[in-house]
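Hi R.,

As promised, here are both runs. First protein below:
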Amino acid sequence: MAADPLNTDARYAFILDGDTGVPLYSKAGYEPMIPASMSKLMLYYMVFERLKAKRLTMTDQFSVSEHAWRTGGAGTDGSTMFLPLNSKASVEDLLRGAVIVSGNDACIVLAEGIWGSEEAFARAATARAKELGLTASTFANATGLDDPGHRMSAHDIAVIAYRLIKDFPEYYPMFSEPEFTFNKTRQYNRNPLLRELQGSDGVKTGHLGVSGYGLVGSAVRDGKRRIIVLNGLASETARKTEAPRVMRSAFLDFETATLVKKGAQVAVADVWMGEEKTVGLLATEDYVAGMHADGVTGIRGTVVYKSPLMAPIKAGDIVGELVLSAPGVAEKRVPVAAAKAVGEVGFFGKAMMGLRGPEDEEEPTSEKD
C-alpha cells in the first residue's frame, strides 16, 4: 500500500480544488460519517437559494418555537445564538447567528420558518442533496446533532462548500466575519483557520462527542483556492494545529493535471460489415485529475466497447467509454466516440464477411498504463 502523502491524524480527510471542483486527496472521504455542525452548510445553501430567487428576504422575521429554544437554546450544551423563547428574529440575524456562531436555535428557527418543521427541512435537504450529487448525504435535522439518519461524507461536505462559494458570492463573505453580536451578547467565529492562516475565508467547524472535532475550511493563495475537510480529530487543539497544516499542504503538495484531452484518440476499434476494418475512438471530454505534486504512478486506462463495432457508424457516435483509475484518484468514466463515419459494405461484401464471421465478439479492449 502506498504511503499516505498527507499523513493526517484525522479519521476522515478530503481536499478539493476550489477553482475546478476536482478532488485532490481523499482519506475515507467518500464514506458516510457523522458530520456534526458541518452539515449546516446544506441549510445555508438552501436558504441562500431562496434569497436569490426572491422567495425570502433578509428582513423577514420568524418566531422562536419551544422546540427551537429547548433543542438549541441557552439551556443546552451546544452552540447557540441565545434566542429568547417566543421572540422574533430577522432572517439576516438568524443567518449570521447560524453561520458565524453556529447557533443551533437559529438553524431550527430558519428550518421551521421556511419549511414548516425541522423534519420537513430534513426531507427537503435529503432530496436537494441528491440533486446536487451528494450521494452519501441524508439529513434528519437542521443542526447536525447526532441521529442515525443524519450522515454526510467528507467529499459531500467539500462539494457543498464549493457550491456555496461558487453559487452565492454575494453571501459567502459572511463566513469570514470574526464575530457576531445579538441582544448585546458578543460571540466569536470558531473557525481557527481565520486566525491561523492568511488567505482563509471560511467555512465551518463541527464537533460532537461521537464524531470528534472537524472542520471544512477554504483559503485562497496566489489566485488559487483550496477546500479541505477534516473530521474525527481528538481535540480542539488538534484541530487548531492540523487544519492550517493540511491547508498549507493542499496548496504546496497537491495539484490538478489533465490526463486525457478532449478529442484525443484513445483506441482503435474493429468494425464488422464496414467499408473500413477499423475506426479510431476519441475522448469526448477532458479528464482533469487531482494528485500529489510528485505525480501519480500506476494510472490505468481501459477502453470498453462491444467489439467488433457494427457498421454503419456515424462520426461522433458514442460507442463505449474510457475507464481511468489510479491510486488515490477516484475512478472516472469518459465516453468515447467514433472518429469518423464508416459506411456499410454492399451485398457481395456482406456475403463474403458472412462466410468468415466476426473475428471477435467480446467486449473489453485496449488497456493502457
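And here is the second one, sequence first, then its C-alpha cells:
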Amino acid sequence: MDNWQEWRKQQRAELMIRRECVTEEERYRWSTAITALLEQGFPSLQQNVVGFCWPHRGEYDPRPLMDFIRERGATLALPEVVNKKEPLRFRKWWPDAPMKRGAYDIPVPDNTCLVTVGALVIPMIGFDELGFRLGYGGGYFDRTLIAITPRPLAIGVAFEILRMHSAHPQPHDIPMDFIVTEAGIYRVATTGLMLISPEECAAETLR
C-alpha cells in the first residue's frame, strides 16, 4: 500500500471515535474482563518490572491490574517521552509517586528512578489478525521494543470492536506477543491470532 500513512490516519480517527462512543458501563465491563484475563493468564507479571500507560481517551484502564500485581511483588513503571524520535524510557511508579503532566498532557512520574521493563501492557487504538498494533502514530513502542535487551514481553490490550483485518504492517512495525481483549487471550503467531485459555497462557509465560 503506497499511501499507508494516510490510510492509517483515517483508520485511527475512525477507531478512536468508535472507542469514545463506548458507554461507561460497557467500558467498565470490558476493562474488568480484560483485567481478570491478565491476572489469570500472566502470573509472571507479579515478579516482573512492568510498564503501563496511564489511561487516555477511552482506553482500557489498567489501574486495577496495576494494584493487583504490585501487591504481589511487581515493580510498576510509566513511560516518559524523551524526544519524538527516541525510545521511551520508564520511571518507577507507585500509588503515592509524585506526578507531573508529560507529553500529550498524559501524567508521568516526576523524576522517580529509571527502570528497565521486562514486560509491557500496551494500549492499542486497533489491532489486526496478525497481531500488529495501530497506535497513535509516533512509533514509540516499536522503537522501545527494539531498544531494550532482552526484548520485553509485549501484551497489547484493546476492546474487540477495535479489531481490523489488516493494519498493513510496514518493515518497522513489531507485532505484539499476546493480545488481550474482553473476549479472551490471543497468542500471536505467524499464521494469525490463536485464542488460548488463561491456563495455557500462564504455563507459557511462566517458562
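A quick note on the second one: The chain has one domain: 4-205. Let me know what you think.

Best,
J.
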